[in-house]
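Lab meeting prep.
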Amino acid sequence: MTGNKIPIFFFFTGIFFLFCQCKQEPSPPLSPKAASKSFQLTPGFNIQLVAAEPMVEDPVAMTFDEDGKLWVVEMRGFMPNIDREGEEDRVGRVSVLTDTDGDGQMDKSIIFIDSLILPRAIAVLSDGILIAESNPLWFAEDTDGDGKADKKTLVDSVYGGGGLPEHSPNGLWRGLDNWYYNAKARARYRRIGGQWITEKTEFRGQWGISHDDAGRLFYNYNWSQLHADLVPPNYLSRNPHHSPTTGIDHGLTIDRKIYPIRPNPAVNRGYIPGTLDEEGKLIEFTAACSPFVYRGKTLPKAFQGNAFVCEPSGNLVKRNVVTSSGFLLSAYDPSPGTEFLASTDERFRPVALTSGPDGALYIADMYRGIVQHGAYMTPYLKEQSLSRKLDRPVHMGRIWRVVPEKEKTAVVEPLSKKAPVEWVTLLSHPDGWYRDTGQRLLVERADPNVIPALRDLLEKGAEPLGRMHALWTLEGMGALTKEICWSALADKNVLVQTSALRLLEPLLLKDPTLKTQLGATLLDRWETAEPGMVLQMALSAASLEQAHKLTLLAAIVKRDGEAPLIRDAALSSLTDQEDALLQLLLKAPDWQTADPAKAIFIEMLASAIFNKGKASEIQALVGQFQPKSDTLHWQLRAALNGLAIQAGMQQTAPVVLSAIPACLNHIDLFDDAVQRQLNRLATGLTWPGKKEEMASAGNGKGLAEDELKQFALGRQQYLSICAGCHGTDGRGIRRFAPPLVQSEWVLGDDKKLALILLHGMEGPVEVNGIKYDAPDILPVMPSHSVIDDGDIAAILTYIRNEWGHQAGAVKPRTVGMTRVSSQGKVVPWSAEELKALPVEKETQ
């Protein structure tokens, strides 16, 4: 049993807080007309009803087909009552809604498929739908044309993993690359030659997924509203010897603040101070879901490319403006204090967003009192739900759409009746829905007669996005050639260039001459390329000849290596060639001057070399640590750090060397820091005649096996996130941050240390009797709340057990509980605030 005065303090304060709140009145269900009056919307917009119960019930996902019909997934089995009775009943369904008279409201509904258990995701194709239910993923077809599915083909028997609704795979989002991606999952799907195939991909998000015009995937978690991939799928995970810490699951904003317009007492942690404000309103995201990048043209220009996020617990939809700088994306709330859309109706539960052929922003409103699944419902929330009658009624639901005030209902022209050559023009449409739909239709039809039109679009098309989509359409049709890709590589637009480079990679396997030509071309162009193209060059370098690859990566990392994403991209392209690049860098004239970013990259290379486990490479590298002086050149010291970190966590048999390296025979000739690393390195090596295990001096000593894994991961995360301010050696950097070595903040209470990473720290701070304040350090250490509990715990475990520290590991659960207990803290801590917090040491 563990104790923690911080949560206990919050608990008892919370009881008092609740006692002092005015009793909340019941929230009876409103008619659609009455509910429409409950909305507060950004000026200049209207919200209109599209459909309501009984036409649609419990909607959780939706998408438009090529003819403007709205397909809605209805999770009618979700929380039938407070005790979940009937949850496994086959009452889920998919309905197809049609606006037959063009007035903007759906007036016809057909149930395409029913008898589903908790369906949660859909993708529409020309000849059927992908539909995910509680566990299986199906392809359902209407073979007789009556509008109802009469054939189901199993695509994946374990798609949903048997998980609970809010923690089970969902999404089925069709990416730019013709694969279907998912949130809360590691699988992607694609149909090739009539057969569905499954492939492993990176894990992403929790509920909902979309992409921007460049094809970058967006997703989120209930506690962190907006994340995205900065690189195309499956690039950074290629090197088995390196674990990337950037590029995938990048948090775009640390802003968690929300602005409801009504009290929100019916949330799971409403009893914890900091969850609700003095008016009972939710302070920050607790149920963020379904991030959607708006790519239409109906909303004003300022709203195009924005990322909208649902918060059903707060009865609102947040707007984020997404910006790009260099290799990174970020986002911000353009109107702090008010939301894009909020409601005074407690039963307004926005859970999914989409756009369609009219360019409006559509909102699926589950419209119910309870949105928290029963498996996670606290006694507090259960009492709230029952006493205020939020458990009834069920099986309601609305679809809304947001349009500019003066916008007239658009006439939707069916696309399925058009000739395939007309679909080619859709690829250059200003609205992303049309571009995506045109690409899908062309790939599914795969009519060879449209290839000339696609090639003509690539050569003469005025719209860069149209040219980019043309490339991926040809890829999906299996009609790409090296000539097409090579020509597109010279395009003036970076999105076309990067797409062409990606698509050239598989063609290089069959054409050595093309591989040589591409390597020379990239070496000639990289210095003047835009950041997006430089990043793709680093990723695509894996396909080049070794000489071109190493030269290109050395040059890119030298110039842009301060960006952790570039370092990870380079390592991802170096499988089994890490040592070759390291040896090149150790001798390269422009790599001799010490630089923190260069040192980090060399350390990463050495870590990968040890992980590879090839004895001859390790023997040769360690042999370069010659005891000719009392220290090592900065390059070799960085390499030693990488080897030692990995050796210290080695859980399999030690790497067998042919003989003891000279440095390990004369450890005493080096300074104390190098001696510690050499001792650690020795624990992961053996050689003939080695009589006993050389002990590790601190640096992870005393950690269990799983904790050593945390330690090694923590070093990787530290180099990407923390080293830029605190230094690779933890001794701090003037004008940036104080030291971590022997810091009482690092070695003290692990929960307070977690609070610093979760929320940041500002103002003066004392470390080892020395007061640090601006301008000697930055005035504020930023929050790292977008990092998940496991990664924060790894960083804390690392810094508490490195540099001679032996403060023990930090569990992810500790970080998670601390995150919950400090909910509502939206500004950085001061040192005095943290000192004033009571703590309790863990006891058995």
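Slide two material, second protein:
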Amino acid sequence: MASGDIPTQHPADGPRKPQPTLPPTPPAPSAPATGTTQIGPYHLTEILGEGGMGTFYRAEQTSPIKRTVALKLIKLGYGSREVIARFEAERQALARLDHPNIAKVLDAGTTENGQPFFVMEYVPGQPMTDFCDEHKLTIRQRLDLFTQVCDAIAHAHGKALIHRDIKPSNVLAYMADGKATVKVIDFGIAKALGNDEQLSVTLATAQGIAIGTPYYMSPEQAAGTLDIDTRTDVYSLGVLLYELLTGRKPFTEEDFASAAYSEILRIIREVEPPKPSVAAMQLGQTMPGLAEDRGTRLGTLTKALRNELEWIPLKAMRKDRTSRYASPLLLAEDVRNYLEGKPLAAGPESRFYRLSKFTRRNRAAVITAAVMALLLTSGVAFYIQSIRTEQRKTAIALADASQQKSEAEKQRDDARRATARAQTIKDLITTSLVSSDPNKAGKQSMLVTEAMAQAVARLDAGELKDQPEDKAELQDVIAGIQYGNANSTEGLRLISLSLETRQRLFKGDHPAVASSLNNVAVCLDNLGRRGEALPKYEAAQEMRQRLFKGDHTSVANSLNNVAFCLVGLGRSGEALPKYEAALEMRQRLFKGDHPAVAQSLNNVATCLNRLGRSGEALPKYEAALEMYQRLFKGDHPDVALSLNNVAFCLNSLGRSGEALPKLEATLSMYQRLFKRDHPEVALSLNSVAACLDNLGRSAEALPKYEAASEMYQRLFKGDHPDVARSLNNVAFCLDHLGRSAEALPKYEAALEMRRKVLPTGHRDTMDSVGNLALCQKGLHHAAEAEPLYRESLAFSEKTLGATAAGTCRVAFYLGEVLDELNRHEEAEGIRKKYRLGDPATRPATQATTRPATRP
């Protein structure tokens, strides 16, 4: 794509989040509906938020690279075919998008029990309104930031997608390179433009049912209509702008507090909200704080809101959508008009208003003209010559102004041509997706693949033949849509076509060609053809190096992509110098502390760990930690996580004594950050307990395990995988302390709970079976231990094989239990079958062979 690389399941262009590594033992604190905290290579660590049908988790990806991601999983109880289909459409919708202000999709799939999930880049931001207030952004800064949101939503509209749930929590803001920026997340109820059968069927809500967040919902959404278009997002953007300016929503909690849901929908459809200037005044005593949060004085803010500034959100929020801005681009353009002192599309059409705007922008020329008129009408002959002199000066000034205006007009013409080009592309896609018969008011739907095939056929037939750049852009857009619809095979064909077109258009090296090369590699990678992907990644990297002649962010990103691909091919030794080169380049590009540098430090450390070079990895992890500490100044989740990474590396080096204070510091920081029960606090309690246990300090570990277990039980009422795991951990520690009788009921409770909430044959359940069996055996309850050992042996033989050491250890214990029951012939049969007469197969001690789940 001309605008950048397509979304991919691996590090693509753009700054990457740090790739933290969690200790291998602690369980995650959150509870996905699958009953596990591990989904493929993703370890869930905390809940970030919940939507109508999905829950967002922060997660740690463990392979093929290690990084922090955001994972969305469908909620427990939302298992209908329609909801799962809608969730699948959500995943496909996100994969279409490739914009710097939209969070990228990295991966997608289903859990063991068929629940869909998708993985996005983790955005370390906060809701846009909170960010603006916390950083006391001025009105101008807020408007500049708001235009980024408009541009992102316009990009989605260009890919035939509507967000339908724009609100502050779905627009995350953060500082990048010293500048405020935003990322739009969660296209959870996105709706395809037109009648794309594959998407609109699954995304369309039942007639009469409103979907969205009431405070930000458009009147047409509140009406439950299926006829939703891009102006729905314009309305929500208007609400967001209203809140950025006034510090409150158009309709407040008080407005909706005592109203039935039907009444709330009526209010949205029919009641006009107060003007922003009035809404701000209604805040009363908080008005001075409102102005302070916007870096201005109360009088200045009030004056701005009373005039043109409030026209923009009011136009965006008009009940009749035909009276709104037609697109986010036009909304953003009017915001820029305001910032540049130009007439607003939202303003009155009066001649006086237009004249006043001209006067304000051309004050000097207008004053000169006014003085000339005054002098001419005075009839004072003495000033005639002076007037003529001034006329000549004015003529020169006007000529200069005319030249400047000509340049400005040229820039506007260029912008109009770019907009027209985008519209051409959008129109062709839209007409390919939907054919309408206005006489019959009917629509004919088709699959995305059919629609895109039709668009390609039109291009092949000569459409846009005189607009080769537009044609190349359109080919790339179509390829991205196919890729986003999980059709990587067709996506590869189309992206290859786009590459060929661009190679014909741009002879030699060109950024668009490099981007297409990278995109071809992405599709090959996702088709499992990583060996073919590597040369494409390398070609994109080499071209970017030739183009940019030195350090450049896109070169560093390409180095990162090549390294990732090499790691996936099992060639970590070759990947390391690429990761190191990316790190060195980022260190030169971003002087001093920068999140991208910290991320690269973590990438290098992770690769070193894969190569068994933990001693070299440790200083990299420590450097990343120190950088985070300088960047965030005090308690911060990324600092806590980085402390955890250093502790993990120390543990892998056998330096648990040094790891312990790091884990304790992590726990203390999380306790200060969250101040009450929280999954991160419970997880850290478990990690500290595990480290104490490893150091032989089980008596100190037990209260930590118990505190974690109690917190999990408060957090997750009833049966839950994390509650079961924490019960198992307490039991393990009690058993370790020789208090097996106390451990037994906890082991039993953990096993019973896991059988309820986890799929049959789940590894955690089988670990509990083994733990309980060993505890029963230690208490000389041989009859109770026997069926447990047989179940454990069958599972181990199935998953590991009959000759695996783990299988033989379970068989050994089963033999001992049978001997204790005086069933010596059966015991001997077990020993012969698993060749346990060989001393090498006998477990040396109970402690080293215990099949226990560690905390």
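Talking points for slide two:
The longest strand covers residues 42-50.
The chain has a mean pLDDT of 75.
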